[in-house]
Design goal:
With 667 residues, the chain is of the alpha+beta class. The chain has helices spanning 2-13, 16-28, 30-40, 47-60, 79-92, 118-128, 132-142, 148-157, 163-171, 196-224, 283-294, 471-480, and strands at 109-112, 190-193, 300-302, 316-323, 326-332, 336-341, 347-352, 363-369, 372-377, 381-388, 397-398, 409-410, 421-427, 436-440, 448-453, 466-467, 491-503, 510-520, 525-532, 545-546, 558-564, 570-576, 580-586, 591-595, 600-604, 612-617, 622-624, 651-654. A hairpin with a 4-residue loop joins strand 23 and strand 24.
């Protein structure tokens, strides 16, 4: 009886020794275990959360003095280490790994595992497609270096019923290739701050809630005496702890705004878009999308001037659904749009979208197939139509958009002069009564906003750009749209400004002088001028260049072109904006200098020669045209900046002027 008592007490006195051995093994192999946990954890978490969860899983693996005896661990390794590894795997294989009170916490910082190369990014995307057993199998094969039978035995001890199936799935992502896992090391992290303003607001809110809770509790205690200690006190209940602030935008932390926010906010842009789509609760899909943004890889494409860095602010979910059989996710971080397309041929497309408004946030290209596009429209769009830009008289065609998603609509780049189809949208009266506007697809995520500045009325103040939906605007865009100086992704707005109207010699009708300006989301821009002649006339030149000509910062414009009348007479035509009071033309052996009350000039010449055209503003400042403008037979080195127009387009292009030292005014 005594001997039996001594035997049963002996393990109790030596129970601390296995714990000490386990702690020594954990410290010795900590980096290895944390990497194993990081790879095995659910892939729908962002890197910050996975780093903390991996450390937490390993630290929780240390058995307590009173823990049950662990199952015998397979293999010939250190028994203490194999037992720890088994506990780490079981933690990672849970559907949602537990969050404990003593788990690591980081306040004010975000943690990132090191950025790797294209191979690491591809491996990250491949792991995101695996389930938990397959990720654990991959970790055992690559991190632990186990053979397939050894890994299968460990998986079975960890509770995986179909271990061989998990190993087969892991083999599909190159377990045997032994890739460099330096980018999957949660013990070598880089650190950056969180959203400081958001953190400050949250801290203030938590303090206020705490003070209110304490005040309420004190009032209840003082008012109810001893009864308060025995009965429920709903008003003094402790508030739930606030979620951690500053973590990266994982599926669980994606911002989703109320569906009617756009009806109650004065900021009507992409921040007011609600989350839409039939897969907005698909955590696996959202996980792949957020991972793709967090770890840019070879399938990441960015429009010019767009940063490919991870999200810089809490990420908003705008759409997640299946479009034409392909899963698509649309995200927004306050500065950029990110469109994730699932599948081997998919990837991540990034575009600038900061400082948007009712019009520039009116639509996003959700899917493109050939020359057809499917748009996701803003929630404030009440009616949508499509129209051919080269057929202004043809009525627009209605475009259905249930839940904001349109069917496939014809695309076509505006500047190719082959009749691009544009969107004509009308916003809800809640936002702006009867506000219609045009958007043109330029091959990127966000269509460009088309505007129009009508010809000047010299008895009235200068006119600001307006929507290009009126008859005159549609006619002007139909004739000159393909002369736009920039028709590439990243253009935010295209404006057509009719700055002069000229009566042509020999009763040939009238011509309109226009300046087309393209402004990009980056703030850069370019301009080109064109003269719109009677329909029978054809184009002679194209041109354009960067700068701020024809913008609100450079509104004095001058351009010129050669023109042959129907009778065969050669003329030099020139026109300036409303402040141009005098025009001067100088040729090799001739010149013309005269005041121009109507801001236009026509000089008859027998042949085209190299000339120089200058204008004098009403304040005495001189402006000119770069390079002297078009000349017969001369090759234009800047011609490549514009796409060659169709020969049937009734316009002649020339160069916008540059100013020299005067304050800008309205055209």
């Amino acid at each position: 009886m005594t001997e039996r008592t001594v035997d049963s007490a002996a393990p109790a006195r030596g129970a601390a020794r296995p714990v000490v051995q386990a702690e020594a093994a954990l410290v010795r192999h900590y980096r290895r275990l944390v990497r194993l946990a990081y790879i095995a954890l659910p892939a729908d978490r962002d890197r910050h959360s996975r780093v903390l969860a991996a450390h937490s899983a390993v630290q929780r693996a240390l058995p307590s003095r009173w823990a049950r005896r662990s199952d015998p661990a397979p293999g010939d390794e250190d028994p203490a280490y194999t037992a720890l590894r088994l506990r780490v795997l079981r933690d990672g294989l849970r559907p949602r790994p537990a969050r404990r009170l003593l788990a690591p916490r980081v306040w004010g910082l975000r943690l990132f595992t090191p950025h790797g190369g294209e191979q690491d990014a591809a491996l990250e995307h491949a792991l995101a497609t695996l389930d938990a057993p397959a990720r654990a199998a991959f970790a055992l094969r690559v991190v632990e270096g186990l053979t397939a039978p050894e890994a299968a035995e460990v998986l079975r001890h960890a509770g995986v019923e179909q271990a061989e199936r998990a190993l087969d799935a892991a083999a599909g992502v190159g377990a045997a290739a032994e890739p460099d896992l330096s980018a999957f090391d949660p013990c070598a992290v880089r650190v950056q701050p969180t959203d400081l303003l958001s953190r400050r607001r949250t801290l203030t809110a938590v303090l206020l809630v705490g003070v209110l809770g304490l005040t309420t509790s004190a009032a209840v205690l003082s008012g109810t005496g001893s009864r308060t200690r025995t009965g429920p006190v709903a008003s003094g209940a402790r508030p739930a702890p606030a979620p951690p602030v500053g973590a990266e935008a994982g599926p669980a932390r994606l911002v989703r705004v109320p569906a009617d926010l756009w009806q109650h906010t004065a900021r009507v842009d992409f921040t007011a878009w609600p989350a839409r789509g039939d897969r907005r609760e698909d955590a696996a899909l959202l996980g792949r999308a957020t991972t793709a943004w967090e770890r840019p890889g070879p399938q990441t494409r960015a429009e010019p001037g767009t940063d490919t860095a991870p999200p810089i602010a809490p990420t908003r979910l705008l759409y997640a659904g299946t479009v034409d059989g392909v899963a698509v996710v649309l995200l927004y971080d306050g500065q950029r749009l990110a469109r994730y397309t699932d599948g081997r041929d998919g990837g991540l497309d990034l575009a600038r979208a900061d400082d948007s408004d009712v019009t520039t946030a009116g639509a996003v290209v959700l899917h493109r197939q050939g020359t057809s596009v499917r748009y996701l429209l803003a929630p404030w769009v009440e009616a949508a139509e499509t129209r051919r830009i080269d057929r202004p008289e043809t009525p627009a065609r209605p475009l259905d958009h249930p839940d904001g998603l349109t069917p496939a609509a014809p695309g076509g780049v505006l500047t190719d002069c082959r009749g691009a189809t544009v969107l004509q949208l009308r916003s809800s009266p809640v936002v702006a009564e009867k506000h219609a506007f045009l958007l043109a697809d330029l091959g990127g995520l966000v269509p460009a906003h088309l505007t129009y500045s009508p010809p000047p009325d010299h008895n009235q103040p200068a006119r600001s750009p307006r929507e290009a939906t009126g008859p005159d605007a549609l006619q002007a865009w139909a004739r000159a749209g393909c002369a736009a100086p920039d028709g590439t992704p990243g253009v935010k707005q295209l404006n057509l400004w009719a700055f002069a109207v000229q009566t042509l010699p020999q009763n040939a009708g009238s011509a309109s002088w226009v300046c087309l300006r393209a402004d990009r989301w980056t703030g850069e821009g370019s301009a080109a001028t064109a003269v719109l002649l009677p329909a029978a006339q054809g184009p002679q030149r194209t041109g354009g260049g960067p700068g701020r000509s024809c913008s609100r910062f450079e509104q004095d414009t001058l351009s010129w072109a050669w023109w042959r009348s129907p009778q065969g007479t050669e003329f030099l035509l020139a026109a300036g904006s409303r402040r141009v009071a005098r025009l001067t033309v100088k040729g090799p052996d001739w010149s013309a200098d005269r005041p121009v009350p109507d801001h236009t000039l026509a000089v008859e010449r027998p042949a085209r020669t190299n000339v120089q055209v200058e204008g004098v503003l009403d304040g005495g400042t001189r402006i000119g045209t770069p390079g002297g403008g078009p000349a017969r037979g001369a090759a234009d080195p800047r011609r490549s900046l514009l796409k060659q127009p169709n020969r049937s387009a009734p316009w002649v292009s020339s160069w916008p002027a540059t100013r020299s030292g005067a304050e800008s005014v309205r055209p």
